[in-house]
What we know:
The chain is built from 21 helices and no strands. By secondary structure, the protein is mostly helical.
Amino acid sequence: MKGVCESERRSEGVMPPLRQGSGTVNRLALYASVAVVIQILALSVWVVRFYVLEDWTAPMVGFDFAVFWSASRVALEHGAASVFSMQLLQPIEVALWHEVNYAPWPYPPTFLLAVLPFGFMPFGKALALYSTLGTCVYGLVVARIARRIDSALRPFLIAFPGVFVALGLGQNSLFTVGAAGAALLLLEADSMLAGVCIAMLAVKPQFGVLFPLALLCGRYWKELAVSASLTLVFVGATVQLLGFDAWEAFASYLPQFNRMAVEHGGDSMWIGMPTVFAFSRSVGMPVKLAYLVHGFVAAPAVVIMAWLWAKRARFELRATAFVVATLMVQPYIMFYDLAWLILPMVFLMRDGKVLAFSRAEWVVLVAAWCAPVQGVLAGYIGHYLQIVPVVLLALLAMVVRRHFMTSEGQAAFSRAWL
């Protein structure tokens, strides 16, 4: 293994691991500290302007959480199936936003059940609790994964802007990142808890869609059975507590939302959607062709992910491939979902102890770090500037390369072709 790393450094300019006290580390820590301060100041200023000074022209921290809270209030007052009603949802949203607008509720009853308790609280307290819980879940899981990386790299992770984007909008991505990261960590240690974490992704099921395939290819039979059973229990609980009509209303509304917001969302939606499908639609491709192009890119990513899990590649590479494929397979994700990029960054940094990063790989990691900010800027500028599809492809190529650059991967390659 050592010979492989040294050979790579000589032949391809692989950078040695960062060490405490080096100029590079000091600069990285400085840049990260500045980034954190800027993001905290921006959030603080927006909170004070909107909630304290009542400046309704300021960005509203928790804009999307207002939709979650409004839906929980509608569900408590009119029943869970009523959350899809514009007539009931919009007045509550307008009262919170202080502007005439409307954002629909496109989520399944599993997520409604998760946010329903917040409807019993005033909005301000609910937002504070929701943001605190999301930060804690995210922070604890990422910190646990990052225990094996060099401490010199941790400021880079702490300053990751995907967290502040999610907090600024009040989105649920910090919770889903925590659930997915914890599930991956627990696969080898506690099948029951791993199954619980996978089942929790039912709140946003598109982010758990590849877990059954990964578990099947990796031969995690117990974990597959536990997660499937608990997901059914979770869904059953929603039927019992919210009523079957909530699922009927969701099934009826979802195709409408897909046509309205995804397939024909226009610049107002596609600008913030970092997917191959959204890019294809933004350049004028018809819907069917855009789906075809998206599938042409997503399918190989899923195949590579499944192959790495079937081959029992290093855990860090399997975990990275899973997250990357999960993001690539989605025709519809938004820039606030890019908080998920923290997982491939952390897992790959752990893998850096096996094989040092090349300069090109550092460029990919920095691009992944910048992706959430770039997604926000695209919305402000008003043009589709998303780099995420390219970043995801680069991350996947990075995983494959690192697999074959180890002695184990080289042996597998030789057996396959000789």
